[in-house]
């Protein structure tokens, strides 16, 4: 295999020797055109997580490289999984370069949404996370919402510099980059890949008409997102394809809700109150008494409590319980990375337990909506 061949999907250098390493392509697949690495092939075709990912160290190395350049960093996050798609340590590694935070998928928010409030919320949460950004822009790469503002923000902050685009997997980075390319150049969305000298990592450099580059970086895979743990079929159910319809449940203490077999929500202690669930409309909810919940799950997981199917469930980490205490005095959300979030509609406090596949990130935050 010639040394110059690179994957047209992710830009990594291709190799046929080590199946467990980046850039692997089976020898018999070399005739394919365009040629992509097995990992991209799988992601495209099965959404199978192949186990070969850009690990955290390599990702940090790549980010540090950005620190030695003069560039604008565009960090794309997913509004539907805000905590889960933030990159920890980003400002430390990109040096003095300004960061524009592009918050994608706002089409998934309910129809009636106060976007100013969302921008303020994002600013505050980003700041608490230690992420200093020059601007927050909301958009939907898919529905073409807010894109003018993304372009305006980039023009304002780039000062003739290259643009590095960073993000976790599945935040919509490719969709957004394709839009950028269409706006900044005449190239018909065909990615010109070339390796960036001086790193062992592979970046896709896309030349713009003004002589600068948009540089696409590999997406970092965060296994703490439920969306990384499920099959392609279940991903379709988990990821809303249009605005979520908030679902409100009046619950007494000692009641439980299941969302398929993916997640279980126990209201353990607190005044009777309502909870609003922002999860995919396609995911069915099932209410029961807390005392019956263990038995119900054992008997009906993957069958009545579905998706996923029993077979798919067996490939996922076991449900694990995370106790959550909601403090008094303010409105809070409990976010479940990759699933969505629950708004607690009372400021009287509550004791909850969230059961999710082991490793999925559960966080309490001030409520977004
Ligand atoms: P990447 O892994 O970050 O490059 O993400 P992709 O661009 O491949 O998008 C990941 C998934 O999110 C795909 O299923 C897209 O259709 C979807 N997606 C991307 N942008 C949006 C958006 O603005 N809204 C919605 N609802 N989905 C989006």
Automatic annotation (TrEMBL):
Upper lineage: Bacteria, Bacillati, Bacillota, Bacilli, Bacillales
Source domain of life: Bacteria
UniProt-recorded name of the protein: Ribosome biogenesis GTPase YqeH
Listed InterPro entries: G_CP_dom (IPR030378), GTP-bd (IPR006073), GTP-bd_ribosome_bgen_YqeH (IPR019988), Mito_lipid_metab_GTPase (IPR050896), NOA1/YqeH-like_C (IPR048422), P-loop_NTPase (IPR027417)
CDD domains assigned: YqeH
Gene3D superfamilies according to UniProt: P-loop containing nucleotide triphosphate hydrolases (3.40.50.300)
Residue ranges occupied by any CP-type G domain in the UniProt entry: 56-223
